[in-house]
Amino acid sequence: MDSSSSEQAVQDGKLYRNLNSLIVAHLRDNNLTQAASVVASATMTPLNVEAPPNRLLDLVAKGLAAEKGDITRGTHFSASLPLPHTAAIDFSTASDMKGSSKSFPKLETRHLSEHKNIARCARFSADGRFVATGSADTSIKLFEVSKIKQMLLPEAKDGPVRPVIRTYYDHIQPINDLDFHPQGTILISGAKDQTIKFFDISKTNAKRAYRVIQDTHNVRSVSFHPSGDFLLAGTDHAIPHLYDINTFQCYLSSNVPETSPNGAINQVRYSSTGAMYVTASKDGAVRLWDGITANCVRSITAAHGTAEATSAIFTKDQRFVLSCGKDSTIKLWEVGSGRLVRQYLGAMHTQLRCQVIIVLLGTLGSSLYSRTSTQNL
């Protein structure tokens, strides 16, 4: 394919994405929520995409006017369609496959708190007020971010400020993952003891979980649906376990993709709208799943060669998935086509388990970071 054809294909792809966004926004804004959800799911377009009011109607009116001859015949009518408003990075125009490093401001340690063993996971609450860490020592520590900031003030350096406001001891084996309920004060944990436990962080004296889901496998990863009514568990089983948190009923997909015996799920994450979720597996595959039907809609096999896929996460606009593997690379995949868009190379530590996250830094832009752990899950 020559450069002009390739450029035209990129432009066509942008046009289709923008058109789908306008259709979804038009249906949603006219209270046709069910229709908007169907179109959004079918085209993998975010349901909460933003567009100017009546933009689609305006463009259709101009197009019809052009067909009727109200616009001078022989001229080409073109319109610049707005991209969905999002804080995520737009990688769609990137033509190179390897990311280039940038210089960032010096990062300083703000607070250090030690577990008795390896710290395996850490998650912020949706409102940014709390951060929780889970460890191989089976404990969970809950921090209040404002108290960490208070410790940095000169007059508070020698004060009795303790940012750890809760410590939970209720697992009997190492903790693998944590997640906060999107609307409430609930923290969940998944552990090697095959349990998912619910902690109410609003209760100051609570040291143990108030609800427990007993799974049948080592729970490697947990993720709340954006509604808060469901959660996903990635386990040693090759298929994600979907739980209704009100009934504790477990659901498995009826559309089972081809998996290897070593298909344990290292990480599972919902997209921002819950329309999709993604899994990263020990067999090296990154798989995309429909958030409504629970069917696997795309498998990216050997995403990191022969190495494990250790983590995968959606960009905020749901157009891309960022994955990390034991080959020490970070890769960006296009959701709609499954093609590799860009690859980021870092220090080569092939024996380390990494998780990649997208960090939004306001005016400093967006950056990619990976977290490592030397202990197998």
UniProtKB/TrEMBL annotation:
<keyword id="KW-0539">Nucleus</keyword>
<keyword id="KW-0853">WD repeat</keyword>
<feature type="repeat" description="WD">
    <location>
        <begin position="314"/>
        <end position="343"/>
    </location>
</feature>
<dbReference type="InterPro" id="IPR001680">
    <property type="entry name" value="WD40_rpt"/>
</dbReference>
<keyword id="KW-0507">mRNA processing</keyword>
<feature type="repeat" description="WD">
    <location>
        <begin position="168"/>
        <end position="209"/>
    </location>
</feature>
<dbReference type="GO" id="GO:0003723">
    <property type="term" value="F:RNA binding"/>
</dbReference>
<dbReference type="InterPro" id="IPR019775">
    <property type="entry name" value="WD40_repeat_CS"/>
</dbReference>
<dbReference type="Pfam" id="PF00400">
    <property type="entry name" value="WD40"/>
</dbReference>
<dbReference type="GO" id="GO:0005848">
    <property type="term" value="C:mRNA cleavage stimulating factor complex"/>
</dbReference>
<dbReference type="InterPro" id="IPR020472">
    <property type="entry name" value="WD40_PAC1"/>
</dbReference>
<feature type="repeat" description="WD">
    <location>
        <begin position="258"/>
        <end position="299"/>
    </location>
</feature>
<dbReference type="GO" id="GO:0031124">
    <property type="term" value="P:mRNA 3'-end processing"/>
</dbReference>
<dbReference type="InterPro" id="IPR015943">
    <property type="entry name" value="WD40/YVTN_repeat-like_dom_sf"/>
</dbReference>
<keyword id="KW-0677">Repeat</keyword>
<feature type="repeat" description="WD">
    <location>
        <begin position="112"/>
        <end position="153"/>
    </location>
</feature>
<dbReference type="InterPro" id="IPR036322">
    <property type="entry name" value="WD40_repeat_dom_sf"/>
</dbReference>
<dbReference type="InterPro" id="IPR044633">
    <property type="entry name" value="CstF1-like"/>
</dbReference>
<protein>
    <recommendedName>
        <fullName>Cleavage stimulation factor 50 kDa subunit</fullName>
    </recommendedName>
</protein>
